[in-house]
TrEMBL record:
Location in or out of the cell: Cytoplasm
Subunit structure, as described in the record: Part of the signal recognition particle protein translocation system, which is composed of SRP and FtsY.
Source organism per UniProt: Sporolituus thermophilus DSM 23256
Protein origin, superkingdom: Bacteria
Keyword terms, alphabetized: Cytoplasm, GTP-binding, Hydrolase, Nucleotide-binding, Ribonucleoprotein, RNA-binding, Signal recognition particle
Full protein segment contained here: 1 to 296 of 446
Domain notes: Composed of three domains: the N-terminal N domain, which is responsible for interactions with the ribosome, the central G domain, which binds GTP, and the C-terminal M domain, which binds the RNA and the signal sequence of the RNC.
Entry EC no(s): 3.6.5.4
Membrane-traversing stretches: none
Gene name of this polypeptide: ffh
Residues that coordinate or bind GTP: 108-115, 190-194, 248-251
Stated name of the protein: Signal recognition particle protein
Assigned GO CC terms: signal recognition particle
Length: 296
């Protein structure tokens, strides 16, 4: 389970702290040193971990905490609040345009889970009484179009494709025309990925963006890749501009660093998390619930 290591370490640290009763400033400092170590071991970005602990410390060594009746509880509460803030504070939803169709463009590297996530997102939105259209704009990965069509069949949702000979910009454009004439209110575009970020990929994504002007560009990243996921998010945000992140494979044994660092490093929130391979395994991301899970 994600965050298992981090949760264990923090629980041990706070158990020791509780056992102390009254706290001195050095007790708090010692505990926060352990918190910092635990964050780094969970693959949290170095600067993010350092700043996090500094913020907690500033609040926790105040008179109020040291003098309170349950000082350890106070420190834990501050850590909980700061963890929640670190992950964006409140849940970030996707923008639904008042003039349909809402256009959502999914971007990301190959294998991150983009195509699967397109299906999951369509499923989630269908359950909210929306009428999604899936768009196969990944013309390079041979199986991508077929994969999306299979998902569409399972979900009983239309999949727009022009095969793999048309260029992705035109596919996206035509898909929006199709959505307008068939009363589909959300267009989910599955774009091509690459193994690594390169200029050709970015140019293609920029061309789609500039032509169809999506309401949401969501970057799909694999939580198992830890700090790499954060670097990928930073690069996509700088070069393309993203509105949010979907973090996949959080059901695996990812250490959780990406979930904790993405927002602070990129300024963009995590909007959904992938919790499995099945179509119903996509959940909105709630920073407060995630913080509770970490603190046990
Ligand atoms: P794409 O190349 O980005 O389109 O990636 P795919 O959608 O083909 O996904 C790559 C692999 O990751 C597939 O085997 C998916 O089933 C798997 N996958 C995607 N999301 C999740 C997730 O949230 N959890 C798990 N365990 N596997 C996932």
């Amino acid at each position: 389970m994600v965050f298992e290591g981090l949760a264990d370490k923090l629980q041990q640290t706070f158990k020791k702290l509780r056992g102390r009763g009254k706290l001195t400033e050095s007790d708090v400092s010692e505990a926060l040193r352990e918190v910092r170590m635990a964050l780094l071991e969970a693959d949290v970005n170095f600067k993010v971990a350092k700043d996090f602990v500094a913020r907690v410390k500033e609040r926790a060594v105040g008179q109020e905490v040291i003098a309170s009746l349950t000082p350890a509880q106070h420190v834990i509460k501050i850590v909980y609040e700061e963890l929640t803030q670190l992950m964006g504070g409140t849940q970030s939803r996707i923008t639904i345009s008042s003039r349909p169709p809402t256009v959502v463009m999914l971007v990301g590297l190959q294998g991150a889970g983009k195509t699967t996530t397109a299906g999951k997102l369509a499923h989630l939105l269908k359950k909210q009484n929306k009428r999604p259209l899936l768009v196969a704009a990944d013309i390079y990965r041979p199986a991508a179009i077929k994969q999306l069509q299979v998902l569409g069949e399972k979900l009983e949702l239309p999949v727009f494709t022009l095969g793999d000979k048309e260029n992705p910009v035109r596919i996206a454009q035509k898909a929006i025309e199709y959505a307008l004439s068939h009363a589909r209110d959300i267009v989910i575009i599955d774009t091509a990925g690459r193994l690594h970020i390169n200029e050709q990929l970015m140019d293609e994504l920029k061309a789609i963006k500039n032509t169809v002007k999506p309401h949401e560009i969501l970057l799909v990243v694999d939580a198992m890749t830890g700090q790499d996921a954060v670097t990928v998010a930073e690069t996509f945000n700088e070069q393309l501009g993203i509105d949010g992140v979907i973090l996949t494979k959080l059901d695996g044994d990812a250490r959780g660093g990406a979930a904790l660092s993405v927002r602070a490093v990129t300024g963009r929130p995590i909007k959904y998390v992938g919790m499995g391979e099945k179509l119903d395994a996509l959940e909105p991301f709630y920073p407060d619930r995630m913080a509770s899970r970490i603190l046990g």
